Amino acid sequence: IEQAAFFVLEAYDGVKRQNVLDSPAARAAFRIHCRYLWVVQLAAWLLVFSTILERPLWCTQPHTMEKVEHPCYNDMYPSFPIPYLSFNQHLWIEIPLSAVIIADLCVLSYSQETQVRSGVGGILVVVMSLYVCDITIAAETPHHSFRLAPYLRILIAVLYSKAVASKAVLVARTIPPISHVFILGFAFLLFFSWMATVLFAGSAQEHEIFPDMRTAMWHLFILVTTANFPDVMMPGYSE
Fold it and tell me: Which residues have C-beta within 8 Å of that of residue 211, sequence separation ≥ 6?
């Protein structure tokens, strides 16, 4: 009767749901997942919040520390009085929170085998696998200049939040209709970057603003978005 009611609910809502395996252990595992889902969601958002307390990678690089004394707290790079955690301290936060999410995926896999092979569950498995690899690489190379972790944490939190995930899907659906606008903007940026490197050859702007296509595109992007607008236009204006 319960199975029939479940199928009727699926047909009424028009949504395909994953069925719990027909065994007492699987049903018990699914109840544990539902009961402690809020704990897992809290762990996911705490991972996102931990990014604020994570020491920026750029200020832990040996070459940066050679040039600037205590770069993470230097007045040249204002970071506000944030109590940054050391790398090891942050790992002690990351690992337990990640273990909570991995344990939930294991419980969900035991109760619904197909849930972690497709859909959101499958994406979570991939993301958590990447996250574990990122933690391992970071532990082996603490002075590495890049980590995927900050981006993966946001993705994990979004996947565990149906409200945020639904809004993200809605935003993703709006991208194809307006993609031609972004393509046209990129084409304009590319064309005028090339033109700038040709027109300003041999001038002060060539060395400061337009030394190559990549740098020219970056500076013109800043110019278009009006962020630090005077910094881009002042060399030409001064001449």
Answer: 197
